[in-house]
Structures
1.
Amino acid sequence: MAAKRVLLLCGDYMEDYEAMVPFQALQAYGVSVDAACPGKKAGDACRTAVHQPTGHQTYAESKGHNFALNASFDEVDPAEYDGLVIPGGRAPEYLTMDEKVLDLVRKFSDSKKPIASVCHGQLILAAAGVVRDRTCTAYPAVKPVLVAAGAKWEEADTMTKCVIDGNLVTAAAYDGHPEFISLFVKALGGTVTGSNKKILFLCGDYMEDYEVMVPFQSLQALGCHVDAVCPDKSAGDKCPTAIHDFEGDQTYSEKPGHDFALNTSFDSVDASSYDALVIPGGRAPEYLALDDRVLSLAKGFMDKGKPVASICHGQQILSAAGVLQGRKCTAYPAVKLNVVLAGATWLEPDPIHRCFTDGNLVTGAAWPAHPEFVSQLMALLGIKVCFA
């Protein structure tokens, strides 16, 4: 039984990261999360939007993943939840016009339960009348509405800005997710132990969007030091990502994702200083598996018995590195050939969110598996989240 139960308030064209990262991170920590959208029921999907700066006067938008809901809005009872999370994006614009949404938010506020809202999500808080005399931040364009609603505005000097005022946690954008999620976990009564770990992410162009950002920010939110590197790139450079989704075709579709900012230079990495390695999937592993530096890095972690967590197509790198002989693992089903030819025992990912741990190795099949994927890596690292 989950320690806590949280509601995620969804809507069409909510920001992709701002829905999925807290949704899967909280589940990885042992929190039960229900995602609901007005006018929709469990099993329906919300379209999401990728918002990011591209050098123009405001952010650009493109289509994100399709986000599957697991709860029916009309059946939601605020009394059954310990907290509320409100993503940003464009969804809040129309959700502010729904009295059922505003009434739900007021009930969480009146009961003093933790509310975490990011980016444009604060439009809903303003419309519900729950920000008067409360200190909060948001995406800068939301400032006029919050000020008019009586809030004490705190400027977002960077997009990582977060503010907590009593039961209310607000953030400027998804860049602030690590602190945003951490503050919300604490507001729920959670404590983290064993998080003084240093983790390396092996990145590449067109790695899967969720498969890098969800575990990256989930581990940061726990207090881990997380470095992301890519061969032939330096700290501050970016990797374009790919959105892989299932939309009725015989294989996954691909759309442009967010640009992922690296924070460490590949050539400066001292592998011995890290406690674990994470390998995202997507299309990057196809070419990274041809790089002897990458294979040597992966082999070094495996030979030393340090935790290695690889998901989806990431196992192509492990196969090429020759470290799967005699191991039990899974991967995206199309990668089964690589895994079997590398001498591993294939574990069927049925359902697709299944993950497996074999010694120091955690493998998952695709991004729906993130809650198990992150949780199993946490177990290997000795990281625990406990709720009072």
2.
Amino acid sequence: MGQLYAWRLLSRVSSFRRASVILQHLRMSMHTEAAEVLLERRGCAGVITLNRPKFLNALSLNMIRQIYSQLKTWEQDPDTFLIIIKGAGGKAFCAGGDIKALSEAKKARQNLTQDLFREEYILNNAIASCQKPYVALIDGITMGGGVGLSVHGQFRVATERSLFAMPETGIGLFPDVGGGYFLPRLQGKLGYFLALTGYRLKGRDVHRAGIATHFVDSEKLRVLEEELLALKSPSAEDVAGVLESYHDKSKMDQDKSIIFEEHMDKINSCFSATTVEQIIENLRQDGSPFAIEQMKVINKMSPTSLKITLRQLMEGSSKTLQEVLIMEYRITQACMEGHDFHEGVRAVLIDKDQTPKWKPANLKDVTDEDLNSYFKSLGSSDLKF
């Protein structure tokens, strides 16, 4: 069909324009046929490349299905010793899922809101339980679904270009993909702070937080990858040795961390409360510029999302990853039926007026009964592993 279309075009143009028409058609064909995710066997490893650079490698259901299937195949393949995942384009590892498509699908009564979350969480669990060393090169923007593709793996490599955030409370959602498992396990109350405010950690702070296991200068990533691929039948210890050698040679200690050197005491004291209202009051009483700024940020978020998120992390702190993912699947389905997620998508991604009208608009109007409804069992529709 593509060739026929090209020849029809050629019949309508003068000969001196034919070359440019052919080139343009080929470019269009290549663009439309480009795979969203590249899956390659190279050296000792299976290499996954998220390949939607124009969309910051945002995760689609099709990508989730391809990655899961290939991950399971490589896990059983005796000639594959290592799995590497990275993003194309240089700007992002993965900026998250396509939440606009989720909102549109729900309004159209399609099944995407069930299928995507269910299959994404099953993939997150598969990464966590993968029997082969799994190396995520989190160079660039890593948010939402991109966090789920990386943080549960054995090795996560940050660079000075890494930008980590879980900004979901600002769109009427919550930090899912296992956020209820890994966030409360970060040092002190850091995870609670990141979850409620959507604060962006950059560069070396992604490693200092424990989100990354190693830090490597971005200019060395290509050489690092080639060295990993050249390993002969490597064990996890062999992979760790290569990563540590690059980590040790990095320029990591050149920059000081404002968050970790100046604000961790405030974060630990203010975010240790068991209610969102008390966290806000703690920030107000602290009165420092940092605390006041975080209070302003929190006050812009969905009140329902804030309360869901705090309970999610408190409960998740004592659950297994699978138990957390089951809990989070329940919450997603309730959020899809609610008001705030669709309003957040409208305000941030569609109309872009950045002024969502949350319902309820105040924390005091989000009752315990409301909150409980987000966590209740879905019966036979619950997530299963």
